[in-house]
Design brief:
five-stranded antiparallel sheet; 9 helices; membrane; 2 domains; transmembrane; transmembrane helix; alpha+beta; single chain
C-alpha cells in the first residue's frame, strides 16, 4: 500500500509538471505580456514576479492544462527567479524561473522589456527558456560581428524589407484587424533579434554577404505545441543605398526559404528527442519489471 501511495504521488507530480510545461509553451508561443509599473525592473523585483505569476495564471485559465492542474490541487508557483543577462541595446533583461512542486520542476523563460507601443513602460513577456538562455548569453550580448554593415543596421534593413512584404500581401489596414493585440501583427514584428555570426564578405557591386541568425517568433510552431521561436540561419546580402544599408531585392524569398528550413530542422530534432525519451522510458520500465520480478522471488 505505501508503494501505491508513493506511485500515485509521483504520477500526480509528473502530471503537474506536464501541465505546467504546456502552459509555459502557450505563454511562450503567443506573445502575451503583462504591464508593470516599475521603471527599472529586475528579474527578481516584486513587480516582475507578481506580473509573471499573473501571466502564468491567465495562461493556465485559457488552457485544458490549467483546468487539470486546478482539479489536481492548484497551480504551482514560480520560484528561484534569476537573471541570465542584460542587453544594453534595448534595455531588456533575460530571466529564468522554476515552476513545480518539491524537487520536481520545469523552467519558464521571461523577458523584462520596454513595451512595443510605449517605450516608457515595461512588461514581462514569456519565452521558451532555451531562447532566453541563448539570447542573453555573453557571446550574443557582446557580439561585434557583421562588419562593415553592423548588427543594428542589419536588423533595421531586415525589418524594413519585411514591412514592405507585409504591405504588399496584407495592406496597411491589416495592422488594425488582428484578433489579439498581443500577437505579432506582421513578419517584421515577428523578428525578435538579429545576430551576425561572422563578418561580411564583399561580393559584386559593393554588396555585402553576411551570415546571420534571425530569431523569429513562429506562431505555426506554437500551434503544433513546439516552442515558438525559430532560429533562421542564412547568408543574406545587404547593399548601401544613399548612405543607408538595405536588404537585397531577393531577401524576402531567401528569408522565407530559411524559415522553412529552420522549421524542418526543429521538427526533426523534436522527433529525435521524442524517440530518445521513449527509448529511455522503455529501458527504465524494463529495469523496474526486472526489479519487481527479483523482489517476488
Amino acid at each position: 500500500m505505501p508503494s501505491q501511495r508513493i506511485g500515485k504521488k509521483k504520477k500526480a507530480k509528473t502530471s503537474l509538471l506536464i501541465n505546467a510545461a504546456a502552459v509555459v509553451v502557450i505563454l511562450g508561443g503567443f506573445g502575451i505580456y503583462k504591464l508593470m509599473p516599475d521603471s527599472t525592473p529586475s528579474c527578481t523585483s516584486s513587480s516582475t514576479t507578481s506580473a509573471l505569476d499573473s501571466l502564468f495564471f491567465e495562461g493556465a485559465m485559457k488552457s485544458m492544462a490549467g483546468a487539470q492542474m486546478l482539479a489536481n490541487g492548484g497551480l504551482p508557483h514560480a520560484r528561484n527567479y534569476r537573471e541570465v543577462g542584460y542587453d544594453s541595446r534595448d534595455h531588456s533583461r533575460g530571466c529564468l524561473a522554476d515552476i513545480g512542486s518539491g524537487t520536481e520542476k520545469t523552467q519558464i523563460g521571461y523577458m523584462v522589456r520596454r513595451t512595443p507601443d510605449d517605450q516608457d513602460k515595461f512588461a514581462v513577456q514569456a519565452f521558451p527558456p532555451e531562447y532566453i538562455s541563448s539570447r542573453y548569453d555573453a557571446a550574443t550580448l557582446n557580439n561585434t560581428f557583421g562588419k562593415p554593415v553592423g548588427r543594428e543596421n542589419m536588423e533595421s534593413a531586415i525589418k524594413t524589407a519585411l514591412t514592405q512584404v507585409d504591405d504588399q500581401v496584407h495592406g496597411p489596414a491589416a495592422q488594425s484587424q488582428k484578433a489579439d493585440e498581443d500577437q505579432p501583427a506582421s513578419l517584421a514584428e515577428s523578428v525578435l533579434d538579429v545576430v551576425p555570426t561572422a563578418d561580411c564578405k564583399q561580393v559584386a557591386d559593393g554588396r555585402q554577404s553576411c551570415p546571420v541568425t534571425i530569431d523569429y517568433r513562429d506562431d505555426l510552431m506554437a500551434i503544433v505545441g513546439a516552442p515558438a521561436v525559430t532560429r533562421v540561419r542564412g547568408e543574406f546580402v545587404f547593399v548601401k543605398n544613399g548612405g543607408q544599408w538595405a536588404a537585397s531585392d531577393d531577401f524576402p524569398e531567401a528569408f522565407m526559404k530559411a524559415v522553412v528550413g529552420g522549421r524542418i530542422d526543429r521538427l526533426q530534432h523534436r522527433k529525435a528527442a521524442a524517440a530518445a525519451s521513449d527509448a529511455a522510458s522503455g529501458a527504465t520500465g524494463a529495469g523496474g519489471a526486472s526489479d519487481s520480478s527479483e523482489a517476488a522471488k
